[in-house]
Amino acid sequence: MADRTRRLPQNIAGEFFVDDSCIDCDTCRQIAPAHFRDHGEQSSVYRQPETAAEISQALRALVSCPTASIGALTKHDLRQTVASFPSLIAENVYFCGFTSESSYGAWSYLIARLDEAGGNVLVDSPRFAAPLVRRIKELGGVRTMFLTHRDDVADHAAFAREFGCERVMSEADGAVRLGIERVIKGEAEARLDDDLLVIPTPGHTRGHQVLLYREKYLFTGDHLAWSPEKRTLTAFRDVNWYSRSEQTRSMEKLLRYRFEWVLPGHGRIHHDTSEAMHEHLRHCVEWMRATW
Prior knowledge:
Metallo-beta-lactamase, Chain A, 19 strands, 6-stranded mixed beta sheet, 23% helix, 7-stranded mixed beta sheet
């Protein structure tokens, strides 16, 4: 619960605020960019929500915050907000909300495939929150849990116990130590089924990997995201924990694949034609070659 006595001075006066426990994970700014901003290493409210739709957005950010750093001066009924997660992004792909502090607020996703033989897929781990778990059960549970890399595993063990799902992760990021059921070795792509392709992309970490679904949705972990400032795809040089040159090479590898969506753990989601995405990726690779 956010503490109004620790309200950051950068917040504009009014109902919603961010306190000094904020870890600058960007979740609130993605969910409600018209109301939350980065004022330098933390977020704050720069415009108070007024309409019912705006208040709903702010409450979704409040519920999703991994550190409970967002507060309101009056009590709001959060039942409808909580029930809105996982929230639909497109087709059968959902954002889980309930981000975890242990993965620095990384986003996780659910691919609902009840009508497909492979079953539902959870991409990276959200907080193991009871309302989210109940809703995932209503959507058919989890058959497979894909973990992009060691930073974003959060409550993976609790989800595995609850749903009996098979977890998939790279050996190079400590999968064996974590008790992962399906360990991906080396850098060869691996098929989970006809629609799901694991593509190893070392660089951010030694064992980072991305997941391509239906040659349309690319779940990128901390490897690739959309930059609203640059208006193109980008990578994060300052949080590269293993090798910039390897990440550049991994980015070049992704030029072989078609996708229309980038769904990262950190950074912004983006959707465009596969041709436009390829062009954005090509520019990103050129930038990395020149500056990394």
